[in-house]
Amino acid sequence: MHKNLTVINHPLINVKLGILRNKETPTWNYRLTMQDVARLMAYPLFLNLKTEMHNIETPLHEEMRVPYYAGYAPCLVSILRAGNGFLDGLIDMIPRASVGFVGMERDHETAEPIAYYCKLPSDMSQRQVYVVDPMLATGGSAIDSITKLKEEGAKDITFMCLVAAPEGVEALNKAHPDVNIITAALDRELNSNKYICPGLGDAGDRYYGT
Ligand code: PRP
Ligand code: URA
pTM for the full model? Predict the structure, then answer.
């Protein structure tokens, strides 16, 4: 039993995840499906989004109080490269969001993450931060990215992936117990190359056709 973990179980998301897992799915369909899944996962991801009540008038001349985004714009952070596949769908759902990027690449021999880029909006301490990456394998990339975000002041952080390995969830929980994790699937295990099994392969390569 993992702490801070929500595994979404929704028929539409499950069907689309099956398409992403299928090795026969071509790049064009993989890309569209990944963006679709991201849009669907916006619903559970933003359940904690802060809103405040505003006065408006409807076309029937009735005054009404309605919710609107509160405070600073939320920040979506994509872990490059594969995170951008999630980002593309999510931005459609929340055009007000600011967007940050953390570049992380796993060393092919050791599976240790190597940071190569970081660009974040200002005032990270004031924002709700949503970090996205389709894969949580050893957890190294997510852990180092979130450590960097905290160094820049971020306090309210949620992490969303598509497929998580139990090893990654445990490591992320241990390193950042304050961060909630949302995933569409909790897979069985990592293999000896630190790939998620059954998984969906290399998410970035499949999204970009490399
Ligand atoms: C993949 C994936 C995650 C990371 C997960 O990125 O998108 O960022 O691996 O593995 P971890 O939990 O063991 O760190 P990759 O390093 O392959 O880079 P890419 O997105 O540029 O393909
Ligand atoms: N990164 C991926 O893209 N897939 C995995 O299974 C593990 C890390």
Answer: 0.96
